[in-house]
Design a protein that fits this description.
By secondary structure, the chain is mainly beta. Helices cover 0% and strands 48% of the residues. β7 and β8 form a beta hairpin.
Length: 119
Amino acid sequence: QVQLVESGGGLVQPGGSLRLSCAASGSRFSIYAMAWYRQAPGKERELVASITSRFSTNYADSVKGRFTISRDNAKNTVYLQMDSLKPEDTAVYHCNAAPTTAAIGFGSWGQGTQVTVSS
C-alpha cells in the first residue's frame, strides 16, 4: 500500500480558490488510480474527482467546471485545484489511491485536510 499525505486546506471566502496536494510514498505511484473524496459534518463521504493511471478524469456534478484534478507522476503527487468555491464545498477532503480504476474508494487513504468556505 501507499502512504498518502494531504496538504493545502484552509479557510477561504466564497468565490476563492485553493489547491490541495496529496503526496504518495512508494515507487509505483504511476499505476494507481487516484481520487479525492470529501466528507462534510453529518454527511456521507462523497467522490469529488478521480484520475486514472492514463490521466482520464471524472468529476462529481456538483464540482464540474470548478474543480480540476491532475497528477504529476515524477513528484508522486495528485492535485485538486478548486476554484469558485462555495460554502457547500466545506468538508474534510481525503486522498485515495486505488490499484485499479474499479477499486477507487478502496485501497489507501490519507488523513484528510479541512477546507472551510466562509465569509
